[in-house]
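Usage example:
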Amino acid sequence: EVVLGNRPSKTSTIRRLDEVGSISRRVLGLLREDVRHGRLLLHYQPKHDCRDRLLGFEALVRWPQAPHPSVSPAMAVILAEEGRLINELGLWVFRQALAFKAHLNQSGFAGLSLAINVSPLQLAHGDFAERIARLMAETPVQPAEIEIEITESQVMPDDPVIDSNIQALGRMGFKLAMDDFGMGHTSLLHLRRFAIDVIKIDGSLTRDVLHSATNGDIIRAIAALGQARDIAIVAEFVETAAQKQALANLGCHVFQGYYYSPPLAEADCLAYCRRQPDEAEVGAA
Ligand code: C2E
Ligand code: MG
Ligand code: MG
Ligand code: MG
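Running the assembly step on the lines above writes:
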């Protein structure tokens, strides 16, 4: 009956999921049905540069028919991982996100990038890169327009399959981002293991940057590392102008969070793009 394994990370999420009560097989069964019937949704959160120019979006999965409002997207993803559903869910996300990006391109916003989250468990699947290559063969979107965000806070098993999938995705031309950087126990080792283009600093570090000198020091160190290795630094959970300015001063290049916008439904994204102050500069950086 137990679907949720004993994870060293995201334990608070799992504990909350336990409190929901009627968890595990029933909820997983509902999720499986909804993935199969395409009843999930993607929302898209904007990313901006330090001059506030729109650079692109991150695709974030939503489960509108979740049986309980407290089953968050993060919990749905953990459930899918534990229930051997993550590959199917992940491919659905990828296909939807590519269709959205093709639509952006056709609408005059080809310069914007799109980030897609991929969990280490998907990368541990032998034919992951091959299946992505097959999806890319069916879309006008180029790999260089897509950033793959690999969650860093999860346990990243020491599995050669993961390494070869990541290398294959890099060779195809995808940009690779290490997500939730700073949350894992082995963040720095991952930098040595994978050729990474982007580091996304975890919200737990950026959130209280105005009040925590320690967090500021850590972010400055990560940014210095990024500069030395030609890695772009993204700050997530940017909620105020003052926070954005502090993070820019510490060396972050890209900013994402409620200060700009919450994740948007697909229908609202084009309006957001058109609303940008200088359309000629959209995606220029
Ligand atoms: P993440 O990739 O680190 O995404 C950032 C999360 O922070 C999102 O939560 C986003 O809505 C939230 N967020 C963004 N800006 C702010 C802010 O200013 N303040 C606060 N408090 N929160 C902000 P969300 O959408 O609930 O997603 C949670 C996590 O679920 C994601 O974290 C990601 O790890 C995972 N996830 C979401 N979609 C997918 C997916 O398609 N595939 C996989 N494998 N994982 C996904
Ligand atoms: Mg992400
Ligand atoms: Mg993140
Ligand atoms: Mg995060």
